[in-house]
Amino acid sequence: MILVTGATGFLGTELVKQLAEKGLPLRCTRRNHSVMPQILIPYSNLIEWVEADICDIFALEAAMEGITQVYHCAAWVSFKQADKEPMINTNVTGTANVVNACIDAGARLIHVSSIAAVGVAKTGELITEKHYLEETPVNNIYAISKLESEMEVWRGIAEGLDAAIVNPSVIIGASAGASGSGQIFETVRKGLIFYTGGSVGLVDVADVAQCMITLMNTDITAERYIINAENWYYKDLFDTIAERFHVKAPTKQAKSWMLELAWRGASLIGTLTGKSPALDKISAQSASIVQNYDNTKIKKAIGFEFKPIDKTIDEVVAVLSAEDKR
Where does the sequence pass through the membrane (predicted)? Predict the structure, then answer.
């Protein structure tokens, strides 16, 4: 039987949907306040929902009964310093618990890491799975949590765990709505004046799920894979989204010093109002960096061809536009 953690999240929901479409019985973990996604209701006969926080060892052990395959999607995503300790506890300790449970049950694991846990390449080179963070990124608490989570999986592999790791780039898809990566689309639609000089890796959520399922059903172990369809400059991405929405594209480039002032100002406003800042330091700094990722390894390993990002953008815009007309 298959266990999916984080099954109510953006990626987890798509993964469960694809597995259920194959007629596979599933056990999915959720926290007591999580709501079952609407798109999974048609597959209710195949899905057993259990309340099990990955930080609760006993609940996790109970959820693992009879499990032979585990997809670990559960994670806390935040760049706020205030979330550092609880996020690291959830992402790192939770992953350690999943790893230990898999070892005890003899289950195979596909772990969802992130490109945040991958290092950087020299200027002009593509970033590959061979790049590792040479030093802990002190200010990027999310990167710290994903790096240390991945280290727990490697520790498990050293102890005999059968596992593979995926490192997705920025995941987009129509099912995200206006939250998560969907905020990029909403921001452009509402009118964005500035663009930045950096680049970003993008991948469709359905492709990430499909890569994970295909990897699970191979004998590949002790490997990590960047899951990235295409590399886009932010300007090209914003221009394309604006064109699809029939709105004006951003025309002014935000320089590094401007972004520095912007995140500091947003931080001050957030402190005064008690609300999360509209722009954080990590996002501001990364927006000006060109980071291009190589997807050769996963394509060769499972013979995969990624969906064009242009098509995914069309799908996201269509869904968001349709919601406005309701």
Answer: none
